[in-house]
Design a protein that fits this description.
With about 450 residues, this protein is of the alpha/beta class. The protein has 15 helices and 13 strands.
């Protein structure tokens, strides 16, 4: 199957081909015709499957279709609204819109916080067909009456599960109330929960259900490994693993902003170039750090969960959970940064006695036991007792819900070398798949 089989315009096909994409991913094969048909969809797709192209391509086609009714006279309205949870993801999605729509006359815009609102106000005085926005800044414009959503034809909620986790449900409801009742709604979520189902039930009208992987699944080509270690030795073990295996590009997750800063400083002092990104960093600092990491000039990027949303790197080889997430679903989001679009990758978790309950929750969610290996010289001390883990992901915005799953005093399976498979650390080869390139290989 090729992209031309969907009936997309020649200009869109030309742009997709120039991006080097030839074979649609499974989510694209199902989502593109469904969106083109004009109905609502509820799509479950883990990150890295190419879901962004799954909705941007048909949206571009529908809005550029000359046979459809044109907007009323006056200043051209916003016709498609794409809501995303983070600034980085907004930048990624809007870049995709521009790349795939480069030969069309449609105009797009990114609307995010962390930067001056004045240039955005000036930009809105010109034509904006497709708006990619984070909820907070979008409502800022609504309050200042610099933006109208009264003629939006297509609404996309991308990574809806993360938006709910971040406490955006009230903002989303405010935005929905400003949209016309007659519109197409597209909801994408990497994981499903009761909250997501409730949102979908209230938003979508007889939606087409698209699910390309089992719910809360993880990428098939990701190699998982748990390394038990005492909490105070995690930094030393991470530095050891990076140096021993010569990892050149590593994304590391911490729970808190302070923890991210502290770890990045430690690694840098140990001759491992590292930078941290989180909500307290300026947008310029976050953008610069991410640019260095993408180009390979920065060896390690340490991130909190929310700041990492939208990190879009082709064939990222290693993701490390320096601390396990408080919410099991976040494990799926984190490791979705690697093993994208058929590429291989490592997902390594450094787990101390405090996190046994969190590990159990993750294994229950992904329906598998994660292989475990104690690294020689870093054996956990069985006399160390579990301590409570502080609430919070470290970069939650105001109004965010408190995190869950606080560990108590578990009996530890971390104090002795595990017998689960495999006994050695698995490393994929550096030669990546030579299969035809798929749109979304960089998370699109």
């Amino acid at each position: 199957m090729s992209f031309s089989t969907f009936g997309l315009s020649d200009k869109i096909i030309r742009a997709v081909t120039e991006c080097g994409y030839t074979v649609p991913t499974p989510i694209q094969s199902q989502a593109i015709p469904a969106v083109l048909a004009g109905g609502d969809i509820l799509a479950g797709a883990q990150t890295g499957t190419g879901k962004t192209a799954g909705f941007t391509l048909p949206i571009l086609h529908r809005l550029s279709d000359t046979s459809t009714k044109k907007p009323s006279s006056g200043r051209p309205p916003v016709r498609a609204l794409i809501l995303v949870p983070t600034r980085e993801l907004a930048a990624q999605v809007e870049e995709s819109v521009r790349d795939y729509g480069k030969y069309l006359t449609l105009n797009s815009m990114i609307m995010i916080g962390g930067v001056s609102i004045n240039p955005q106000i000036a930009r809105l005085k010109n034509r904006v067909d497709i708006l990619v926005a984070t909820p907070g800044r979008l409502l800022d414009h609504i309050q200042q009456k610099t933006l109208s959503l009264s003629q939006v034809e297509i609404l996309v909620l991308d990574e809806a599960d993360r938006m709910l986790d971040m406490g955006f449900i009230r903002d989303i409801k405010k935005i929905l109330a400003l949209l016309p009742k007659q519109r197409q709604n597209l909801l994408f979520s990497a994981t499903f929960s009761d909250e997501i189902q409730a949102l979908a039930d209230g938003l979508l009208n007889k939606p087409v259900l698209i699910e390309v992987a089992r719910r809360n699944a993880v990428a098939d080509k990701v190699t998982h490994m748990v390394h038990p270690v005492d909490r105070k030795r995690k930094s030393d073990l991470l530095a050891h693993l990076i140096k021993q295996h010569r990892w050149s590009q590593v994304l590391v997750f911490t729970r808190t902003k302070h923890g991210a800063n502290k770890l990045a400083e430690f690694l840098t002092k140990n001759d491992i170039p590292s930078l941290a990104i989180h909500g307290n960093k300026s947008q310029t600092a976050r953008t610069n750090a991410l640019a260095k990491f993408k180009t390979g000039t920065l060896q390690v990027l340490v991130a909190t969960d929310i700041a990492a949303r939208g990190i879009d790197i082709s064939e990222l080889p290693h993701v490390v959970n320096f601390e396990l997430p408080n919410v099991a679903e976040d494990y799926v989001h984190r490791i979705g940064r690697t093993g994208r679009a058929g590429s291989e990758g490592d997902a390594v978790s450094l787990v101390c006695v405090d996190e046994v309950k969190l590990l159990t929750g993750i294994e229950r969610l992904v329906k598998r036991d994660l292989p475990s290996q104690v690294i020689a010289g870093f054996e956990p001390d069985p006399s160390i007792k579990a301590e409570p883990i502080k609430n919070g992901r470290g970069s939650e915005p105001r109004g965010a819900k408190p995190t869950r799953n606080q560990p108590k005093k578990p009996t530890s399976k971390l104090s002795k070398p595990a017998t689960k498979k495999p006994t050695g650390f698995a490393h994929p080869t550096t030669n990546r798949s030579s299969a035809p390139r798929r749109a979304g290989g960089r998370g699109r």
